[in-house]
User: Which sequence fits this backbone?
């Protein structure tokens, strides 16, 4: 299960990175589901895990208007993954 969760987090980070979802430009969970091809429950689980790891943050009020965007650490990790490098730790 942990491998699937890590893969889901990586897919969510990649989708956010490709959509340039940082610096006030976030993506809704519904849009993340479309971009990643993951079911909503897995998108939400991956988002929650990525948020706990400091890779994404949520902005907005309520669930309807909330969007997810990458933190600087999330951008670095997604950028490293996109280029085939290992992300810096810490």
Assistant:
């Amino acid at each position: 299960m942990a491998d699937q969760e890590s893969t889901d987090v990586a897919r969510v980070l990649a989708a956010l990175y490709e959509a340039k979802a940082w610096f006030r430009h976030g993506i809704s969970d519904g849009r993340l589901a479309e971009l990643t091809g993951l079911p909503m429950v897995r998108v939400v689980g991956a988002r929650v895990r990525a948020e706990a790891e400091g890779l994404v943050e949520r902005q907005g009020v309520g669930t309807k208007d909330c969007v997810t965007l990458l933190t600087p650490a999330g951008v670095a990790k997604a950028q490293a993954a996109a280029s085939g490098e290992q992300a810096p730790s810490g």
